Please model this.
Amino acid sequence: MSGVRKAYAAVDLGASSGRVIVGRVGPGTLELSEAHRFPNRPVRVPEGLRWDVLGLYAGVLDGLRAAGQVDSVGIDSWAVDHGLLDADGALLGNPVHYRDARTDGVAEKVWATVPAAELYAATGLQYAPFNTLYQLTAARSTAQFVDARRVLLIPDLLTYWLTGEQGTELTNASTTQLVDPRTRSWAHGVADRLGIDLGLFAPLRQPGDRAGLLRPGVLADTGLTGPVPVTAVASHDTASAVAAVPADTPRFAYICTGTWSLAGLELDAPVLTEESRAANFTNELGLDGTVRYLRNIMGLWLLQECVRAWGDPDLADLLREAAEVPALRSVVDAGDEAFLAPGRMPERIAEACRASGQPVPVTPAETTRCILDSLALAHRRAVADARRLADRAVDVVYVVGGGTRNALLCQLTADACGLPVVAGATEAAALGNVLVQARADGLAGDLADMRALLARTQPLTRYRPRGDAARWREAEARLAAR
Model:
């Protein structure tokens, strides 16, 4: 297919916004352009926190209309959340948001049947209160769940609406805590013990599988000329983002930055030890038989919530002011569940500092510096723990995603980890999404070839570690002593 150049629409849905990005791929070329961006605003209704999935779908259709004629469409999104369909294939209410309180205390009920250590040994998934397993357990007695005949994860739900075809893409399925990372198939033993009917899920799909064609009604709504295939990509956005890490060595760690920070390693096999479970590392499935061995960190959610509370000040000015605040004056645990829910974030950060006997940040700049120092410290701990638990040497840390725009965070991460940081692939999830579609068309090679193309075509910024490593060790000890 020498000289062929094709266009691919990557639908990339994040926890705060969605976007449709067009990737144009040809021999040695990879170009992105944003067709449409739209907000993703959860809605609190009397029964709890819900996703406005109809608004998201409308944004997808608007984006495909703005994209113009494309050769394929792929969808990636955040993990764990899902829609319930009835016997006619109709959606039974808006999907529940993972930050909803319905899973409070549910994990302990699950562990009474399948102890936490056994659950980890079978599925390799870290504890998070919102894992799909806990959500399904919490929903079991509801009228909607009783009527449900199908569970579709968010990208699969939107793919179904676009094509009329149902499937469950593997990388996202691996976040449900119902997949065995060794066999890369459903963990039937766990599901059986917990009374979860895996028949509710559509058959598994692999990244690169054809998921169907845009329905005639979708073609009419978007102005596209059919047939337009929809390709199953690595539909968990982190899986797509890790596929877009422009690494040229296997000795790398990655940090996918955005609302969450996902920090870890790419491995050939899961790490299912009790020590790994205690360190709260997860084994999620990636492209081409890989395992994403990582820790979830609260991420820029902390700053996003503070900025919202402060009335949306100019972020560039805020970061400049934060850079002038003394380093490591106060730090908090960026993985603490106390920061999971929305609201009162500046006050909660101040309360955490006060409770640990540290100076309390007062100004927005001081709070911002506390957040960025804390995130860098969490990155340091995650990379160091992953190296130790997986017995893997690391020479460089790649930062991808929205946090690459935050030069202060990238430099602090290099300082904290004591390793060079390469920041790039800002739209990493969209890039990985596009490249899997291109590979399905024969326009991209294996994972190494995809990464080589990314390294040649995407702007990268390099940060060298600086400062006194002892200060980071002292801050780490401060948190450990809480």
Observations:
- The first helix runs from residue 53 to 67.
- The chain has a mean pLDDT of 96.
- The radius of gyration is 22 Å.
- The longest strand covers residues 29-39.
